[in-house]
């Protein structure tokens, strides 16, 4: 985006090195990580605005749950700009000004810091996976249901190989890899996992990632837990 690099921006890697609290923060992206950071800063007293290009907050989550989270965020003072197409960032004497288009209208917002939270990408190019015969795409290392790569001696787990990028998914996948790589017998399969989940900022509104669009757990009725 024109001007963003010159104005300076934060990512999930640099955010935690801040030594001063920004008075005004723009969060670009309405996914779980941006949301988590938005809520945290709002509760610390920062004026937070979340910019989203599309019309849905927490777009991968259950719509009813996302609406509950959004209402809670609004109570915390977080502002939402839906359908906001960011065009340019300008550095001024008083801050960083984000210029955007929303519903055909031009708008601008001045902030002290910008957090870019529009997703992470796998970092595999430098590994020379071609030499090992390990196939990958721009989404990461390609694995089968047993987490084996195209080289049968090499497995992959974690964000670089999984659709759902969560700590507990990485943990569960690593256990599958250990079983399948080191022990004989039937292979464990990723598709057999039933994984509870929730958007990270919703600690007070636990939910399962078992919505009408996703399979429900087999066996006992669903329960919720507020623990991490
Ligand atoms: C801000 C933030 C908040 C999050 N909050 C939550 C949460 O509340 N709950 C949750 O479940 N998940 C959360 N996640 C997601 C979670 O962190 C990841 O799903 C998890 O860390 C994945 O583990 P991993 O081992 O696959 O990858 P990582 O933890 O990212 O580890 C990958 C490692 O590989 C190294 N590496 C990368 N490229 C190379 C290379 N070419 N050569 C050598 N080393 C390399 C990296 O430096 C890193 O040490 C969050 C993520 C972020 C960014």
Written account of the structure:
The protein is α/β, with parallel strands linked by helices and 228 residues long. The chain has 2 domains: 4-116, FAD/NAD(P)-binding domain (3-Layer(bba) Sandwich), CATH 3.50.50.60; 125-192, 3-Layer(bba) Sandwich (FAD/NAD(P)-binding domain). 22% of the residues lie in helices and 19% in strands. The chain contains 5 helices and 9 strands, in the order αβαβαβββββαββα. It has helices at 4-7, 32-44, 63-75, 129-132, 167-182; strands spanning 24-28, 47-51, 79-81, 84-91, 96-102, 105-111, 113-116, 136-137, 140-141. It has a 4-stranded parallel beta sheet with strand order 3-2-1-7, covered by helices on one side. It has a 3-stranded antiparallel beta sheet with strand order 4-5-6. It has a two-stranded antiparallel ribbon with strand order 8-9. A hairpin with a 4-residue loop joins β4 (84-91) and β5. It is elongated, with a radius of gyration of 21 Å. The chain binds flavin-adenine dinucleotide. Flavin-adenine dinucleotide (FAD) binds at residues 12, 33, 123, 126-127, 158-160, 165-168, 170, 200.
**Biggest pleated-sheet summary:** 4 strands, parallel
Instruction: Return the CATH architecture of the largest domain.
Output: 3-Layer(bba) Sandwich
Structural class: alpha/beta
Per DSSP, the total helix count is 5
Radius of gyration: 21 Å
Bound ligands:
flavin-adenine dinucleotide
Secondary-structure element series: HEHEHEEEEEHEEH
Uncertain segments:
202-216, 220-228
Q: Report the CATH superfamily of the largest domain.
A: FAD/NAD(P)-binding domain
Q: How far is it from the N-terminal to the C-terminal residue, by CA?
A: 36 Å
Provide the β-strand percentage band.
15-25%
Mean pLDDT: 87
């Amino acid at each position: 985006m024109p001007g963003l690099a010159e104005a300076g921006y934060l990512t999930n890697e640099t955010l935690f090195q801040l030594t001063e609290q920004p008075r005004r923060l723009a969060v670009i992206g309405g996914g779980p990580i941006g949301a988590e950071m938005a809520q945290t800063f709002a509760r610390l007293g920062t004026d937070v605005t979340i910019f989203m290009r599309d019309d849905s907050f927490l777009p991968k989550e259950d719509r009813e749950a996302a609406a509950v989270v959004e209402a809670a965020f609004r109570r915390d003072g977080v502002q939402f700009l839906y359908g906001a197409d960011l065009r340019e960032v300008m550095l001024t004497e008083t801050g960083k000004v984000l210029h955007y288009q929303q519903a055909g209208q031009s708008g601008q917002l001045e902030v002290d810091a910008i957090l870019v939270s529009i997703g992470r990408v796998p970092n595999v190019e430098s590994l020379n996976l071609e030499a090992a015969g390990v196939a990958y795409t721009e989404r990461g290392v390609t694995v089968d249901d047993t987490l084996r790569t195209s080289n049968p001696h090499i497995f992959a787990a974690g964000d670089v190989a999984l659709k759902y990028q969560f700590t507990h998914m990485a943990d569960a996948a690593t256990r599958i890899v250990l079983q399948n790589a080191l022990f004989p017998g039937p292979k464990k399969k990723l598709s057999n996992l039933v994984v509870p989940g929730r958007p990270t900022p919703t600690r007070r509104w636990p939910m399962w990632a078992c919505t009408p669009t996703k399979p429900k757990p087999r066996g006992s009725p669903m329960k919720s837990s507020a623990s991490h």
